[in-house]
Amino acid sequence: MMSKLFLFVVFINCGHCANILGLYFHAGKSHHILGEMLLKELATRGHNVTMASPFPLKEPFPNYTDIHLTGILEDQLARESMFMKMNKGHALVGVNDVLELTRAQTELTLNHTEMGKLLKSGTKFDVIIIDWFMNGAILLYGTLFNAPIIPIASHGTTHLANSIVGNPSPPSYIPNTMLPFPSNMTFFQRMVNGLVTIAYNVMGHSNAQYHQALLEKYFKNVPSLDELKNNVALVLSNGHYSFESARPFVPNIIPVGGFHVQKAQKLPQDLQEYMDEAKHGVVYFSLGSNMKSVLLPKEKQQEILKAFAKIPHKVLWKWEDDKLENKPDNVMIRKWFPQNDILGHPNLKLFITHGGLLSTIEALHHGVPVLGIPIFGDQKANIPNAVSSGYAIQLELADLDETTLGKALDEILNNGKYHENAKKRSQLLHDRPMSPMDTAVFWVEHVIRHKGAPHLRNLGNYLPWYQYLMLDVALFLVTIVTIVGFVFTKICCFICRKKKEKKE
Ligand SMILES: *[C@@H]1O[C@H](CO)[C@@H](O)[C@H](O)[C@H]1NC(C)=O
Ligand SMILES: *[C@@H]1O[C@H](CO)[C@@H](O)[C@H](O)[C@H]1NC(C)=O
Ligand SMILES: *[C@@H]1O[C@H](CO)[C@@H](O)[C@H](O)[C@H]1NC(C)=O
After folding, report:
1. Residue 331 dihedral angles phi and psi, to the nearest 5°
2. Angle (CA) 447 262 235, round 5°
């Protein structure tokens, strides 16, 4: 009886069970988490999911088949030092390293024997979900499998997400993700924002040419990257107005920020007791999965420990080594912590983070104040956003020492406003008509039901840029007005001259 009921429920939930391919070409753990979460949810709802990625599941999951893309993770680990390099420069430093990384990983995917096998197997897919991270060539799989593509934009509603579906993003009030500017920019900031926007467009164009060449290296008769854009049905953006400034959305870009965060679970027993018994509360410190704490310069590590030794709180530090010299008694190190469950513990007072988007969203989900030490990329904009929402303090890595960290800890742990603002902002993240995960699943199934959902696409994505900006019309009108003005003046002059001649 129960199993019949269960089957019935599954049947209701999944009127059209589909074959879904996940294609995660990049070894960024935070990107992968988003894809894995969504695909697991789709599998739970009865779809047959296949995930090609550098991170196969450790334990099997029903209706979820892994294809291990070997070589990609190894390639990324060899490039780890780039993250510190990017910390030192402005918005354009390190972009080249990232482009090289994504090109190499795209190529490893295109030439992967497992991908070749999958193509040969003749398996049909109803939709392909991909990581969207400067990997234009991957769009070819939409053509090869004859399936619509849904890119997940793990950085939120940025130029990467906007450009693929033609979502308007005026540089007059939407700062580039790599710039730490507020929406209300000064004249100078708007100028920089405009120039960086142009620079990114130029770089995007040259990267597209590179990806076109990659395709031609591995496949015959490939369409142009512009034509491959047609394979994109819609973009799921890891964004939301609770942490992004208010902005336009065309119908085929859907903000689902927060969908990866799960309800906090009970911690493993030792950690649960450790946190339960923390009289003054707990501070959690993690620099994320790419930028490891052990990559910090030695003297910074010691300065941080000195500042920690002075607070009465317990500290959990994600530290990727067995030993940490001069570790005070109130600091516990582990190579890995169940971050979400720690953030959800009522005794957690503060999250010290690099400001990666997933970590920032998790802090917001649980209403936890943030001390941000942005290292690179969008982190340098995520933290200022949190600061302007009133629940964060920002510290630069270069300025980080016992004094600055001590001061910041004192302010954020003892001034109640950070906690209050974190709670207020958290309510915005939760106050929506449908949970972000249900929203994401709805739109994936919408694309499946409507065979790529062509009705959602806006023509603005396919017009040449001068038509989009109406420059051709403006030029035409200016020309007409100029000609009419010119002729009119000429005629006036002519009449004047005639009158003068008559008088004389
Ligand atoms: C599920 O996907 C796998 C590929 O991972 C495929 O071999 C299998 O045939 C699919 N099952 C169904 C019922 O379509
Ligand atoms: C999903 O998994 C369940 C149990 O593992 C199985 O009974 C069902 O047929 C699977 N569905 C598909 C679409 O493969
Ligand atoms: C693609 O990978 C194969 C090994 O799987 C290798 O022999 C071949 O050289 C690669 N192709 C190119 C063009 O690098």
Report:
1. -110, 130
2. 25
Query: Which among 406, 376, 372 has a CA at the least distance from the CA of 387?
Result: 372
118/59 same-domain check: yes
pLDDT (tens digit per residue) in 94-129: 778 889 999 999 999 999 999 999 999 999 999 999
Tell which one of 111, 113, 215 to mutate to probe ligand 3, the residue whose CB is within 8 A of the most ligand atoms: 111
| Residue 345, domain member (yes or no) | yes
Residue 8 has pLDDT above 70, yes or no: no
Q: Whose CA is nearest to atom 1 of ligand 2?
A: 63
252 and 295 assigned to the same domain: no
Please indicate whether residue 111, judged by its CB atom, sits closer than 6 Å to ligand 3.
Answer: yes
| Residue type present at position 97 | D
Ligand closest to CA 108:
3
Please check whether residues 373 and 394 belong to one and the same domain: yes
What predicted TM-score, i.e. pTM, was given to this entire model? 0.90
Render pLDDT for 243-302 as a digit per residue (tens, 0 to 9). 999 999 999 999 999 999 999 999 999 999 999 999 999 999 999 877 778 888 889 999
Closest atom of ligand 3 relative to the 113 alpha carbon: 5
CA 154 to ligand 3 centroid distance, Å: 30
> Does residue 309 surpass a pLDDT of 70?
yes
Residue nearest to atom 5 of ligand 2 (CA): 62
Q: Which ligand has the minimum distance to the alpha carbon of residue 63? A: 2
pLDDT, position 9: 47
Query: How many beta carbons lie within 10 A of that of residue 323, not counting itself?
Result: 7
**How many independent structural domains does the chain possess?**
3
CATH of the domain at 344: 3.40.50.2000
Ligand 1 pocket by Cβ (under 6 Å): 19, 48, 50, 65, 123
Classify residue 203: in a domain, yes or no: no
pLDDT of residue 151 exceeding 80, the answer is yes
| Domain extent at residue 325 | 269-430
Residue closest by Cα to atom 1 of ligand 1: 48
**pLDDT computed for residue 91 by the predictor:** 58
Ligand 2 within 6 A of 17 CB? Answer: yes
- pLDDT score, position 182: 83
Are residues 46 and 139 both part of a single domain? yes
Taking the C-alpha atoms of residue 369 and residue 349, their distance in angstroms, rounded to an integer, is 7
Residue 447, Cβ neighbours under 10 Å: how many? 23
Tell me the CA–centroid distance for residue 316 and ligand 2, in Å.
40
pLDDT band of residue 216 (cuts 50, 70, 90) is very high
pLDDT over 90 (residue 78) = no
CA distances from 125 to 111, 118, 128, 330, 402 (A): 20, 11, 7, 52, 55
Backbone angles phi, psi at 60, to 5 degrees: -60, 150
Q: Indicate whether 396 belongs to any domain.
A: yes
